[in-house]
């Protein structure tokens, strides 16, 4: 039985639960139970604050965890990063009041920066050989400059809207983050086997996101041109139609390419373009 730690509430909770469900792993509805066992996969879910997930996995109380890479780096507990999961994307950046002219990282020499990520920031300044006073605070980091607590901040940024609202400008990106699957270093063989099954299911789920299945009828003498327009994972499926002189091409494509591709296919005489949503892509 594997134990996986998920955030109990917050930005990563819903997407983590959704990923497990899409991977065919049923878990109870009630997140308030701290520990809940899946009825159809040898896994139990432990719900925790995200701060506690790296340590819980590092020491083996949970075998796996889903948590932001930022949190993994900040806590510094040894864990294996097994898979990037592509959600919870954000970055950790330095920001200063927007009215101040920025001169480069040397700006921070002898200044004060407020953050909830002192460890990552310390490593960044050490690497750059900059002496900066780091003021650790737990929340509302972005108001620190306006109340005189610090000259700048180091915090999570996604759209940048919060910075702008607080009169701040992002000046250095220090790291990118997304949710990652982490594991206890040196899991035994039997557990690793289940972990591999889980990871390959996650890969299938992540690959099918943003994908569509397209069917298009093409005159036989335009097939080569059509195949140049349709990129394909391996080789697209080509089927003869009952109507001689025509074939159907089936392919998996990116959702973002649907309209452009359809226009180009129509321009070479393609007809009956059917775009379907894709449930799973298991490779
Ligand atoms: P907890 O109560 O579990 O300690 P928290 O308040 O520390 O939660 P959340 O705000 O829920 O944390 O954020 C969890 C993670 O989601 C962050 O560590 C980061 O990886 C990611 N994240 C945070 N803010 C954003 C954002 N604006 N956009 C995308 N991802 C984000
Ligand atoms: Mg937290």
Question: Can you describe this structure?
Answer:
GO terms for molecular function: ATP binding; ATP phosphoribosyltransferase activity; magnesium ion binding. The chain is an alpha/beta fold and 283 residues long. It has helices spanning 13-22, 53-58, 69-75, 118-128, 161-165, 189-208, 223-229, 258-267, and strands at residues 2-7, 35-37, 43-48, 64-68, 80-84, 90-97, 112-115, 133-136, 152-157, 168-177, 179-183, 211-219, 237-240, 246-254, 271-277. The strands form three sheets. A six-stranded mixed sheet has the order 2-3-1-4-11-5. Strands 8-7-9-6-10 form a five-stranded mixed sheet. A four-stranded antiparallel sheet has the order 13-14-12-15. Strand 7, helix 4 (118-128) and strand 8 form a beta-alpha-beta unit. The longest helix has 20 residues, at 189-208. The protein is flat and about 80 Å long. It starts with a strand and ends in a 6-residue tail after the last strand. Adenosine-5'-triphosphate is lined by residues 7, 10-12, 49-51, 68, 70-71, 88-90, 156, 158, 177. The site of adenosine-5'-triphosphate has 16 residues, from helix 3.
List keywords for this structure.
283 residues, alpha/beta, six-stranded mixed β-sheet, five-stranded mixed β-sheet, 8 helices, 15 strands, 27% helix, binds adenosine-5'-triphosphate, binds magnesium ion, EC 2.4.2.17, metal-binding, ATP-binding
């Amino acid at each position: 039985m594997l134990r996986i730690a998920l955030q109990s509430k917050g930005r990563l909770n819903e997407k983590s639960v959704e990923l497990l469900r899409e991977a065919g792993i049923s878990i109870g509805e009630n997140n308030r139970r701290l520990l809940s066992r899946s009825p159809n996969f040898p896994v139990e879910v432990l719900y925790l604050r995200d701060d506690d997930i790296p340590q819980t996995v590092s020491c083996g109380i949970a075998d796996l965890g889903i948590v932001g890479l930022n949190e993994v780096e900040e806590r510094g507990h040894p864990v294996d990063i097994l898979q990037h999961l592509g959600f919870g994307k954000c970055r950790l950046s330095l920001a200063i009041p927007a009215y101040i002219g920025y001169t480069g990282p040397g700006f921070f020499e002898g200044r004060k920066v407020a953050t909830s990520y002192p460890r990552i920031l310390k490593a960044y300044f050490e690497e750059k050989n900059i002496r900066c006073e780091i003021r650790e605070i737990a929340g509302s980091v972005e108001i620190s400059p306006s109340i005189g607590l610090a000259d700048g901040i180091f915090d999570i940024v996604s759209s940048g809207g919060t910075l702008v609202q607080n009169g701040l400008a992002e000046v250095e990106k220090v790291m990118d983050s997304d949710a990652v699957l982490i594991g206890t270093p040196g899991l035994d063989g039997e557990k690793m086997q289940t972990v591999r099954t889980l990871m390959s299911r996650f890969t299938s789920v992540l690959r099918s996101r943003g994908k569509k299945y397209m069917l298009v009828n093409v005159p036989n003498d335009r097939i080569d041109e059509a195949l140049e327009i349709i990129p394909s994972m391996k080789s697209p499926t080509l089927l003869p139609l009952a109507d001689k002189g025509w074939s159907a091409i089936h392919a998996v494509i990116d959702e973002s390419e649907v309209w452009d591709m359809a226009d180009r296919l129509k321009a070479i005489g393609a007809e009956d373009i059917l775009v379907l949503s894709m449930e799973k892509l298991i490779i």
